[in-house]
Design brief:
heterodimer; A: mainly alpha; B: about 375 residues; alpha+beta; Rossmann fold; OB fold (Dihydrolipoamide Acetyltransferase, E2P); 5-stranded antiparallel sheet; about 25% helix; elongated; binds adenosine-5'-triphosphate; binds magnesium ion
């Protein structure tokens, strides 16, 4: 088996490379590999190398990041946001995925459409929609005032909270779909077996459904966490300057202050952490083990 | 045997009664007024073609389907309204349904855990169950590391470890190859006998049903066609469906002919008749009524032509070890098959016209 097929990779593509010979795999992959190297890896390496090569070989850029509280605060905020968003998405997504996995026929298609449709709408639009809800005269504030719950409009926009909300909502499908597909992959006779062996509906969920859906949960969490780390538009539009995240900072350094070496160092940190997360997730969760070695 | 295995020597099998069970899916009556009484410690096979309602009956007994009409009793207690988890019924599934995220031991301990049995007690019972299915030392394995046969043994151990009075199995050997199937048939039978469990076993493999079951319920179209011992089913099938479904058989067209107090059978397309003895359903018979005669190939003897007795043209001789299958074209144009000893086939060659004979009391005639 090809060592490149990580559990997550196998998970997403639903096939393993086992079915093709090594040569065939290579032939099929070549166009993509060429494109990746020329248009992706090369420019990225060039950009990242700036951090240690400009103006001369140095680690100063990294030292500067570490030394200035401004940067560490943003880094911590970015991780906190990614964690909270991942947790929030998981909490909201699991029940939906579970419901979807129990539905059949027309209802299943209907719910799936509701889940997937937002993916066809630009993130920009989906982010702006939240300003309608959260603004000073937005739906939430005006409703609360009309109901007499508050006198003054609350500041909802331009807070970290607003960013969490919007990011969770936008990324729901990314969490729902992998969980749903791992739930659907559980053979129904496992649940029946657990019941016939004396389990209640709760036991079935706790001892069979939940553990067997963990690969999907893990895949969803990795995906949402990693995407969240690099989120750009949403924090910038509705988080305001006080909720700045790393991606925004990188853009600022590169385009506003033209400090490319520093932007590059920031990007290095973001990418390094992201890669480390993927590796740790794969190792710790042993996604392949959860599904049994068969 | 492992000394701990003694703790699991008997399951107190209970009698099961399914009464007037009916279950429809839309317009399809999957099960149609089925009544089935199984004795304590008895092994009953539900045998029938695909779609005949076997699984539906089993699922209803297990509590995964609710009957439209009818009741289920186990040990004299009506369990029709109980949820599956409260029925104390062991179930073995076609694809084993083992939990892939648990070890072998954890799988077998699952029903114990559900009953709040843990620690040493549970460990000892799991050990005993493993010994019972001859998988000592496999407790720590992952399910994916086992062969199909081993997985089925684990499934058996898991379904038996809590000593349920009734075991249900839905084609448990369907996914295994032939040799392993036969080995597992004996294994399951051995366990069932030793433990005294009541078993309802679904299969569409008649050989399996004939070798394993104390009694067989032959099903078709949601109804039980016959419920009897394997011998009875084979020798005295209740109707044409059972006759054709179980075992190899000749169904010869013809009509009934009155012969004083007795009956004879006239083969279609000829004046040849054979005597009939010991038939069940003679009440409704009339002279000249169209009928089918069922005779097992191994009962047919091939010999010289005799006047007034059936005869035909030998079209093919197929040697299969100790016996020879002799295909004979009857005057009606239909084929009859005789399975004869190789020694008796010595004088027979393709193209011969031969006489056919069989014991008058071993054939069955069904008015058609
Ligand atoms: N859940 C269901 N919904 C609709 N029809 C069903 C359902 N389950 C079974 N049936 C129908 O009921 C009939 C009996 O099905 P059942 O599964 O009991 O047959 P079976 O004897 O077990 O067949 P097989 O040997 O193929 O397993 C079939 O016609 C089947 O199509
Ligand atoms: Mg079935």
């Amino acid at each position: 088996m090809s060592g490149a097929a990580s559990p997550i990779g196998r998970y997403w593509f639903g096939v393993s490379t086992q079915r093709y010979s090594r040569a065939m795999t290579l032939v099929l992959l070549t166009p993509l590999l060429v494109l990746l190297v020329v248009a992706f890896f090369w420019p990225i390496l060039r950009f990242l190398s700036l951090s240690v090569l400009e103006p001369e070989p140095t680690l100063d850029n990294f030292r500067q990041l570490w030394a200035r509280e401004f940067y560490t605060t943003i880094a911590i905020r970015t991780f906190r946001t990614a964690l909270i968003v991942t947790a929030g998405t998981l909490l909201l997504a699991y029940p939906v995925a579970y419901l979807m996995s129990t539905l059949r026929g027309a209802w299943a298609g209907f719910v799936a459409a509701i889940v997937v449709l937002p993916l066809w709408i630009s993130i920009l639009v989906r982010t702006y929609v939240w300003t309608v809800f959260l603004g000073r005269n937005g739906i939430i504030n005006s409703s609360a005032i009309n109901l007499g719950l508050i006198d003054q409009p609350m500041t909802l926009l331009n807070t970290e909270f607003a960013v969490w909300l919007a990011m969770i909502q936008i990324q729901l499908p990314m969490m729902i779909l992998p969980i749903y597909s791992s739930l659907r992959a559980i053979p129904p006779d496992l649940g029946m077996a657990a019941q016939s062996l004396g389990g209640s509906a709760r036991d079935v969920f706790r001892h069979v459904t939940l553990p067997l859906s963990l690969p999907g949960v893990a895949a969803g969490c990795v995906l949402v966490f990693i995407i969240s780390l690099g989120y750009f538009i949403t924090p910038m539009l509705i988080g305001g300057p006080r909720s700045m995240m790393i991606a925004t900072l990188i853009t600022q350094q590169a385009t506003k202050f033209l400090d490319w070496p520093l932007a590059s160092a920031l990007a290095c940190v973001l990418m390094g952490v992201t890669l480390a997360m993927v590796i740790v997730f794969n190792r710790v969760l042993r996604l392949d083990r959860v599904m049994g070695a068969g | 045997m492992n000394p701990k295995a003694r703790e699991l020597v008997s399951i107190h099998g209970k009698p099961v009664a399914v009464r007037g069970l009916t279950k429809a899916y839309g317009a399809v009556k999957a099960v149609d007024d089925v009544t089935l009484e199984v004795n304590a410690g008895e092994f009953v096979a539900l045998l029938g073609p695909s779609g005949s309602g076997k699984t539906t009956i089993l699922m209803t007994i297990a509590g995964f389907e609710t009957p439209d009409i009818g009741t289920i009793e186990v040990g004299g207690r009506d369990i029709t309204a109980l949820p599956a988890g409260k029925r104390e019924i062991g179930m073995v599934f076609q694809r084993y349904a083992l939990f892939p995220h648990m070890t072998v031991a954890e799988n077998i301990a699952f029903p114990l855990k559900m009953r709040k049995i843990g620690g040493r007690d549970a460990a000892a019972q799991v050990e005993a169950a493993l010994a019972m299915v001859r998988l000592e030392g496999y407790g720590g394995r992952r399910i994916g590391q086992l062969s199909g046969g081993q997985q089925q043994r684990v499934a058996l151990a898991r379904a038996m470890v809590y000593q349920p009075p009734l075991l249900l199995m839905d084609e448990p050997l369907g996914a295994l190859d032939k040799n392993l199937r036969e080995e597992m048939q004996l294994e399951i039978k051995r366990l069932q006998k030793k433990l005294g469990a009541t078993v309802v076993y679904v299969t569409h493999d008649q050989g399996e049903a004939l070798t394993m079951a104390n009694r067989i319920a032959v099903m078709s179209d949601g109804r039980i066609q016959q419920f009897a011992t394997p011998m009875e089913i084979y020798d005295r099938p209740a109707n044409l469906f059972v006759a054709g479904f179980v075992g190899e058989t000749n169904l010869i067209d013809g009509e009934l002919a009155r012969d004083g107090a007795a009956w004879r059978f006239r083969l279609a397309g000829s004046a040849d008749t054979v005597a009939l003895e010991g038939q069940d359903a003679v009440d409704g018979w009339r002279d000249g009524m169209r009928a089918k005669l069922m005779v097992r190939p191994e009962l047919v003897r091939v010999g010289p032509i005799r006047d007034g007795a059936p005869s035909g043209l030998v079209e093919e001789l197929i040697y299969s070890g100790g016996t020879v299958v002799c295909m004979v074209r009857l005057p009606s144009g239909a084929m009859a098959t005789a399975r004869i000893a190789a020694a008796d086939a010595a004088g027979v060659t393709v193209g011969d016209t031969v006489g056919l004979e069989w014991p008058a009391d071993r054939v069955r005639v069904f008015a058609a």
